[in-house]
Input
Amino acid sequence: MCAGPAAELGVTLAVLAESPDAAAAQVVRSAPVGDHADIAAVLDFAAGCDVVTFDHEHVPSEVLAALVAAGAALQPTPAALVFAQDKVAMRTRLTQLGIPCPRWVAATEMDEALAFGELVGWPLMAKAPRGGYDGKGVEIAFGPEELTPWLERGLVLLEELVDFRRELAVLLAHSPSGQAAAWPVVETVQTDGICTQVIAPAPGIDPDLAARATEAGLRIAGELGVTGVLAVEMFDLDGERFVVNELAMRPHNSGHWSMDGAITGQFEQHLRAVLDLPLGSPLPRAPVTVMANILGGDEPELYSAYRHVLARDPELKVHLYGKQVRPGRKIGHVNVSGTDLADLIERAQHAADYIQGVIRE
Ligand code: ADP
Output
């Protein structure tokens, strides 16, 4: 998704691809195949780059350290990235900064878990400190026995189960020289732990809540030294208060709407930010934009459904990632902008469902 903006900006993009048919390798000319955990492969790749950035947070610390030692310009730096890689590090730092978070504890012993359960009440949210995504590595624990396997694996992050009204995300970009630009606060809708829809801006959001949430995002970016796009996932507790769920330091699902719905999309902005170029305007192009994720269904062939969707709604923007279809895998998204929220949701979701194959008319 950075390839289009890179071509337009005149920036040469290369990607270290996990396989020759990886989504990015299909559209980026320089796409050597290598494992992001293989120090030699990553160093070799980075030697040809002015700036190195990431499209996921799973690059191991020792690989990052080797890159820094070799003089690679990493954006974001490993010192910032750790707060997107490690949920315990993130909770510790945000709590120090006074950013509202769910009550939490990092536990290694059952005694600690029991004391925390006593304090905040069961059930608890158990999270693997590292390696989770799309709800993997996260589980509701209704009683102590469900925590046993977690504790056996080592350190577990326990959080109170937050009773929230909806999920929000603050998305912004921050550059090494300190410029920042925030998109409007969005609502993210999750189904079975996977983001399925994003509405920009979050419908009916109190302007004061939006301002405080954005301020918190900008403060996190500044204090943690984040460069590039930062997504701050939040829970809206009651329309007035929020707590931060987690951070992502890369273009993020909550920002896909901006590709068509904002003056500057997140992939262009990420490139501008990591290259320390002046940032583009994050202002929306329309009163509302709805993004719906296309998840893989049972039908591996998308072409006929795709033709139908394009013909049915010419205002819709369809983005497909060139990934192999697997049930539940994010394989694309659609964006549609306008003024009538209910109509936009219906059209975006219809298109996503049709391509997925869950509806046939
Ligand atoms: P991942 O890293 O897999 O995205 P998250 O920490 O974002 O994991 O959690 C996935 C989902 O679980 C969230 O989108 C939210 O719906 C729910 N969740 C996470 N933490 C809590 C919590 N403390 N209380 C209630 N629900 C939570």
Summary: The first helix runs from residue 3 to 9. The mean pLDDT is 96. The CA atoms of residues 128 and 137 lie 5 Å apart. The radius of gyration is 20 Å.
